[in-house]
Amino acid sequence: MSAVTPPPAAPRPHAGSYDPATTTAGGLAGELARLEAQAELSFDEELRVLRGLGLSSAGGPLVEIGAGSGAVTRRLRRALPGLPLVAVDIDGDLLAHARGAGAELVVADAAELPMETASAGYVLLRYVLQHLPDPAPALAEARRILRPGGRILVTEVDASCWGLADPVHPELADVHAKLAAAQQAAGGDRAIGRRLTRLLRGAGFTEVALHPFATTNDTRPTDDFAPHLGPGRLQPLLAAGVLSLREFALAVDRWNRFRADPDAWVMLLGLTAAGTAPHTAPRGGRTTEGVR
Ligand SMILES: C[S@@+](CC[C@H](N)C(=O)[O-])C[C@H]1O[C@@H](n2cnc3c(N)ncnc32)[C@H](O)[C@@H]1O
Q1: What structural domains and CATH numbers belong to the chain?
Q2: What is the pLDDT of residue 67?
Q3: What does the pLDDT average to over 184-208?
């Protein structure tokens, strides 16, 4: 039997510090499950904030940049059936999982969108900017494609105020610091929350404000928080030698203790920054060629 050489894997598109195959335990399948669980956990709260910021079925289309597998796209479709949706991602393999989400799918870099100037009513970026080495080009493109008066909606976290738990496990501080440092070394920024409003103002948006939302285990089982707090996120860091086996075992033990404790309490804090595209349109436009 002759050996068959598999074709070389296609190079991954550059997505900053985001790499679904290596940043989550279980590779791509694990990441798809994590994105789904993450959306399920907090989407209701996020939607409440987005509606409060004026998101409705009118005034679209909504362009979701960095839509990934469509976990949020599908939920937006159900919540706002009349809103035209466009899901954009640099990673065509990931975006293929958004088929059937009720959105037009576009493979593109956030920094170079194949959409006409002033053609969108809303732009949503959820957990995307934290992965970009420089968020400014993506925000400039968001501003370009928004109609004057259109809204940019950016949902993010900040590592320093992202979670509050009781009981506290200060012995895990080094582990969390290493997680943030690994993302930063790959070109991302888990502390982007504190920069959001300044980034939006710097990109020329007006009426910029920050709207936090909290998700707690008062209303959800503690296990639902596993995508954020469980050891799955840490496993690739163990494999890469960033975490020692002792640190990883400590994190697993503390998570297991936490989830078994009926009195344990956790709150995750998300941050949605919003801004309005000004009425002075940016120069330069593109056609819709390349949109599929
Ligand atoms: C953490 S995932 C979030 C996915 C989705 N927004 C969600 O909340 O489920 C980050 C996404 O940003 C995408 N991304 C990273 N850099 C990008 C870029 N330069 N242009 C477009 N998408 C990008 C990744 O491919 C990935 O799908």
Answers
A1: 27-276 (3.40.50.150)
A2: 98
A3: 94
**Residue 130 C-alpha to ligand 1 middle, in angstroms?**
9
Question: What is the C-alpha separation between 38 and 22, in angstroms, rounded?
Answer: 18
Average pLDDT over residues 80-90: 97
Q: Is 94 helix (H, G, I), strand (E, B) or coil?
A: helix
Pocket test for ligand 1, best of 23, 32, 41, 90 (most atoms within 8 A of CB): 90
Instruction: Kindly state if the Cβ of 131 falls inside 6 Å of ligand 1.
Output: yes
46 vs 291: which has the higher pLDDT:
46
Among protein residues, the one with the nearest Cα to ligand 1's atom 12 is: 66
| Distance separating alpha carbons of residues 268 and 225, to the nearest angstrom | 9
Query: Please, which residues bridge with residue 221 across strands?
Result: none
Query: How far are the Cα atoms of 164, 253, 255 from residue 229, in angstroms, in the given order?
Result: 11, 12, 7
Quick one: residue 266, left, alpha or beta (phi over 0 = left, psi -120 to 50 = alpha)?
beta
Please state the length of the chain.
Answer: 292
**Of 101, 200, 216, 98, the residue nearest 150 (C-alpha):** 200
Radius of gyration of the chain (CA): 20
Cα(106) to centroid of ligand 1, in Å?
13
The number of CA neighbours under 13 Å toward the Cβ of 208 is 16
Residue that wins the pLDDT comparison between 283 and 109: 109
Planar angle of CA 199, 83, 227, nearest 5 degrees: 60
| Average pLDDT of every residue of the chain | 89
**Token reading at 191:** 């502390």
Report yes or no on whether pTM surpasses 0.85. yes
Q: Is ligand 1 within 6 A of the CB of residue 89?
A: yes
Closest CA to 233 of 176, 193, 171: 176
Residue 129 Cβ < 6 Å to ligand 1: no
